[in-house]
Amino acid sequence: MEKVWLKNYQSGVPTEINPDKYPSINEMFEEVCKLYADCPAFANMGTILNYREIEEKSRAFAAYLQNTLKLKKGDSVSLMMPNILQYPIALCGVLRAGLTVVNVNPLYTPRELERQLVDSESTTIVILSNFASTLQSVLEQKEQKKIRIKNIIVTEIGDVFSFPKSFLVNWFIKYVKKMIPKWHIKNIIPFKAALKIGTKQTFIKPLVTGEDIAFLQYTGGTTGVAKGAMLTHRNMIANVEQAVAWISPLIKPGKEIIITALPLYHIFSLMANCLTFMKMGAFNVLVTNPRDMRGFVKILRQYPFTTITGVNTLFNALLNQPAFRFVDFSHLKLTLGGGMSVQHAVAMRWQLVTGAPLIEAYGLTEASPAVCINPLNLTEHNGSIGLAIPSTDVSIRDEQGMALSFNSPGELWVKGPQVMLGYWKQPAETCMVLEDGWVRTGDIAMIDEQGFVRIVDRKKDMILVSGFNVYPNEVEEVIAMMPEVAEVAVIGVPFEAGEEVKAYIVKKDPLLTSETVLAYCHRELTGYKIPKEIEFRAELPKSNVGKILRRVLREE
User: Fold this and answer.
1) Which of 67, 122, 231, 369 has the fewest CB atoms found within 10 Å of its own CB?
2) What residues pair up with 438 in beta bridges, in sequence order?
3) What is the pLDDT of residue 212?
4) Would residue 248 be called left, alpha or beta, if left means φ above 0 and alpha means ψ between -120 and 50 degrees?
5) What confidence score (pLDDT) does residue 466 get?
6) From the CB of residue 427, how many other CB atoms can be counted at a distance below 10 Å?
7) 56: helix, coil or strand?
8) Which residues of 255-289 are buried (b: 16+ CB within 10 A; e: fewer)?
9) Whole-angstrom Cα distance, residue 470 to residue 474?
10) What distance in Å separates the CA atoms of residue 385 and residue 342, rounded to the nearest whole number?
11) Can you give the pTM of this predicted structure?
């Protein structure tokens, strides 16, 4: 196809980027903090930190990790927080200390958290107190587990706010809202104390290269239990440079305000909102709880935002809020949708209400994640995921790995400097998806003569709930642990603007009810993974070797 997509690049977008522009993310961060020192960097709950303050606080945190905790280059540090100011401080501090960030969903159950802590070999965790009870449940089993956690740094939502706001917010959340379940963990380190101590310590900048692992970002890939994608500093720098090149015709350095409602621990928000717009010196407004739609809309009315990112379900939910129509959209330049397919009806409604087109993009964790983005000068949603971004090659392959022609459906393969190093401690799984620098996405797509890519089907069994991957194997494994269950199969079924999880169960105990299954799942699974529908059957469809055929259930 000889990169036919290049002819449709927006004017001013280069065809290639330099993935080695910075030795590591740290040099990029330091440059940004010098250029935009007095510009607002992040806001949350009315408190604003500028780039100088983010640099100072992250340097103090890095010094604490180095000097007090004696962490060594390459050690893994888990971050278990929603969108609060402590996240970018901890993120940059961990990276500046030469350590590896392990992003953890704060809504994980003890079982899910334990699996990720063990697999990542994290020695330190930074966690919001609201979720400390989950960690306590894991640590109580420490003698029987292979958990390496030695340092537990606990923060409260108001810790970075100035006094008396910090005290009042923490008190209100704990005693009035009662949002913090009781917990007790010995020898915890308060985040505020770590910053205070680190301020008095000397930060020694470590030698970090592009090949060092910046993130262990957990994903299910195309099958199975979540695996840690090893994303190097070079991978992330490359993707930042690719994204910046793409948005530069529209986005002006130091002039933008971006709304961050998607969690920063998710690869889409981490790259698009945090790193890319940080590189542009943007003002990032963090939304801690976007499910509070009324509160979310109030935030939108407070700031003259120029950019917002989200998933289809988020945009749809906003459009269904009557107050959303009264938001001032006069400054809105860019609405970026990813994480799941953007429905045409939602895109059209969004443009009608806001006056701005909803630009669809595509990526996957294994590619840091950006692969394709639609040109920003599109006048309306076109149903495609766009064009391959600079320094990126895409190919449609058949089952034998042979390239297909235009408009022929096949598996989408991706190659570029943003493609991961591999899966952490999973060489066999790595070999299944990486070949000669190409990553097999598992998504079925087509490319037209203009280079626009369209997804025609998703990964074989993956379920996409509000932009988050749900892996049927994991849900089935949990339900199968119930003694009353003989067999179980899990698939995704269409629901509103996305999918929901449905479980088919063959009973072992005839008295088993849907309510019992759901109650068990609520204890073992994060909310978005819990089946919304249970169907009991006498038997499940199987292949001639006895494998349960999810495909048949989906076809039904």
Assistant:
1) 67
2) 415, 435
3) 98
4) alpha
5) 86
6) 9
7) helix
8) ebbbbbbbbbbbbbbbbbbbbbbbbbbbbbbbbbe
9) 8
10) 9
11) 0.88
| Domain 463-555 in the same topology as domain 51-208 | no
Contact 489, 468 (CB under 8 A): no
CATH of 51-208, one of 3.40.50.980, 1.10.287.90, 3.40.50.2000, 3.40.50.720: 3.40.50.980
Cis peptide before 369 (omega within 30 of 0): yes
pLDDT in tens, 193-208: 999 999 999 999 999 9
- The DSSP bridge pattern shows strands 100-103 and 213-219 to be parallel
Mean pLDDT calculated for residue range 121-146: 90
CB 238 within 8 A of CB 287: no
Residue 539: other Cβ atoms inside 10 A: 9
The separation between CA 41 and the C-alpha centre of its own chain, rounded to angstroms, equals 20
Predicted pLDDT of residue 345: 83
Which one-letter amino acid corresponds to residue 344? H
Amino acid at residue number 258: I
CA distances (Å), 387 to each of 236, 408, 435, in order?
20, 17, 22
- Reading phi first (left if > 0) and then psi (alpha if -120 to 50, else beta), residue 46 is in left
Give the three-state DSSP class for 457: strand
Amino acid, single-letter form, for residue 490: V
C-alpha–C-alpha distance, residues 359 and 338, integer Å? 9
CA distance linking residue 90 with residue 58, whole number of Å: 6
Amino acid at 84: I
Confidence band for 223, pLDDT divided at 50, 70 and 90: very low
Mean pLDDT in residue range 165-182? 94
Measured CA to CA, the distance from residue 417 to residue 19 in angstroms comes to 7
Provide the CATH number for the domain formed by 463-555 in this structure: 3.30.300.30
- From 311, 386, 304, select the one nearest 350 (Cα to Cα): 311
Strand runs (DSSP E) across 430-482, as ranges? 434-435, 438-447, 453-457, 463-465, 468-470
Amino acid, res. 143: E
pLDDT in tens, 278-333: 999 999 999 999 989 999 999 999 999 999 999 887 898 899 899 999 999 999 99
